Amino acid sequence: MVIAVAYKDNEIFEHFGHAEMFAIYKTNEENTELVSKELVEVKESGHQAVADLMDSCGVDAVIVGNIGTGARQALAEYGIVAFAGFCGNADDAAELMMRGQLPYLSDEGGCSGGCSGCHGHDEDGGCGCGGHDHEDGSCGCGCH
């Protein structure tokens, strides 16, 4: 299995269409171990261009914070499933995906009012999914 995670600073990036990089994880044949991780830079923008990149990397599934319907459809044309609504550590998410423990949330886009990768807010009011607050005070995954 090949898993792509929209990636920034070892965290799941907020949006498929704005990701500048993806971490590409490969598993062994039994899907019991992650055997490699490669960072791939996105050189062309647009849903179709990024979907084409995912196809060229042999990706089976994409993990991202948010993804629109058009991008989800572009991936589906290649048989790639988008798992949206997640935040936190990219390596952990790939591990959960490999084990079949990452839930498929919906076909509606992404995170809107809650994030499976989040575990609430910490005592400082920040997101409990890794403390990667953005300038607007949100974690980028709909937790606030």
Q: What is the makeup of the main sheet?
A: 6 strands, mixed
Radius of gyration, Cα only, in angstroms?
14 Å
- Could you name the ranges where pLDDT drops below 50 across 5 or more consecutive residues? 108-144
* Run of helices and strands: EEEEHEHEH
Look at the structure and give the mean pLDDT: 79
- Cα shape: globular
Count of helical regions: 3
Strand tally: 6
Structural class assignment: alpha/beta
Approximate helicity band: 10-25%
Distance between the termini: 33 Å
In terms of DSSP E residues, the strand content is 15-25%
Detailed description of the structure:
- There is one protein chain.
- This protein has 144 residues and is an alpha/beta fold.
- Strands 1, 2, 3, 4, 5 and 6 form a 6-stranded mixed beta sheet that branches.
- It is built from 3 helices and 6 strands; from the N terminus they run ββββαβαβα.
- It is 19% helix and 22% strand.
- It starts with a strand and ends in a 46-residue tail after the last helix.
- The C terminus is likely disordered.
- It is globular, with a radius of gyration of 14 Å.
- Helix 1 packs parallel to helix 2.
Question: What is the topological layout?
Answer:
Layout: E1 2-8, E2 11-12, E3 21-27, E4 34-41, H1 47-56, E5 61-64, H2 69-76, E6 81-84, H3 90-98
Parallel strand pairs: 1-5, 5-6
Antiparallel strand pairs: 1-2, 1-3, 3-4
Q: Would you kindly provide a brief summary of this structure?
A:
By secondary structure, the chain is α/β, with parallel strands linked by helices. 19% of the residues lie in helices and 22% in strands.
